[in-house]
Amino acid sequence: MRAKIVNPIVQAAFDVLEEVLGTDISRRRLSRHDKTLSLHRISALAGISGAVEGYVLFSMPLDVVLSIVAVITNEEVSAMDDAAQAAIIGLMDTIMDEAARELRDQNIEVSIAPAALFWGQGMQLSCAEIEAVAIPLQMPLGAVELTVALREFPTSG
Fold it and tell me: CATH number of the domain at 3-152, out of 3.90.25.10, 3.40.1550.20, 3.40.1550.10, 3.40.718.10?
């Protein structure tokens, strides 16, 4: 997976998170995965197709999700109710819309599927058929892990 594909997605995540949450974000060392990846308790997933296909995933502990939702909604949040779920899904959709725009600016045509949210203890993601990179992002609200798992199709011409 080329940096030309991954970097616009990572940059979109940084830009949207910094703007929406009003905080600085730092990036930790990325890791590559080609088998199984352990996930935090709550994850938002969005599909991508076109010149590249695969998915982008945000995985976070519950306390970080609740802190993020509290900032987005400007209300204290204590559980993953409907409003909290909608806030995280909306955040992921916004990040992916920005990522698609940045990819299209580089003449990489993509479509984005709406985000889905899932949660549970001990979840794992199989990456056996596609290369994945996990990028830990650190914010004052806590850490989230951005996983980009894509395969690129050769362009004709």
Answer: 3.40.1550.10
Structure tokens at 142: 């806590």
Whose CA is closest to 1, among 46, 48, 38?
Answer: 48
Largest CA distance in the chain: 54
Would you say 152 and 2 are in contact if contact means Cβ atoms under 8 Å apart? yes
Question: What average pLDDT does the structure give for the chain?
Answer: 86
Rounded to 10 deg, the angle between the 82-105 and 3-21 helix axes is 140
- The model's pTM is 0.88
**Does residue 29 register a pLDDT over 80?**
no
**In sequence order, what are the residues at sequence separation of 6 or more whose Cβ sits closer than 8 angstroms to the Cβ of residue 10?**
27, 135, 146, 148
Query: And the tokens for 111?
Result: 């479509």
More confident residue, 29 or 102: 102
3 state SS of 151 = strand
Output phi, psi for 144, to 5 deg: -125, 155
